[in-house]
Amino acid sequence: MRQTISAQQLEEAYDAYGTAVYRLAMAFLGRRADAEDVTQETFCRLLYRAPAFADENHRKRWLLQVAANLCRNQLRGFWRKRVTQLEDTIPAVPPEELELLNTVMALPEQYKLPLHLHYYEGYSVAETAEILKLGQSAVKMRLKRGRELLKLELEGSN
Q: What is the CA radius of gyration of the chain?
């Protein structure tokens, strides 16, 4: 059953989860404009297509799952393959975290997304698996391999 939400409820949801949705979109897409588009579309879908939520955690997982699906769609899109990269920056982060963030962003999608959801957003392996539509063992393996790649990259740069 779909629920109707008010403008105030939408604003409250955006204030609470907008940053998490944006960060996930940046981890997927790597471009500020694309991440902003996905964030906007995610909250439009909340406004027009939201199911009845059991609790706030359910709402946040739903938003992140919608954002992940929109990012995947955008990555498969015709224009994504034919656009010239103009922006080569990521949002401002503390200088001590910049090297780590750049290294994480350079990882293949299959590793950076589970790492982002698990370590930056604080989701459990089971929740990460649900959001990414993977098995828990696949998420555990991707986290393990992602950590190994990060370790190799960071040790190699020192």
A: 16
- Which conformational region is residue 91 in: left (phi greater than 0), alpha (psi within -120 to 50 degrees), or beta? beta
Checking if the pLDDT of 82 tops 60, the result is no
Residue appearing with tokens 């990521």: 90
Q: Considering the entire predicted model, what is its pTM?
A: 0.65
DSSP secondary structure, the chain, as one string: -B----HHHHHHHHHHHHHHHHHHHHHHH--HHHHHHHHHHHHHHHHHH-B--SSHHHHHHHHHHHHHHHHHHHHHSTGGGGPPP---------HHHHHHHHHHHHS-HHHHHHHIIIIIS---HHHHHHHHT--HHHHHHHHHHHHHHHHHHHHHH-
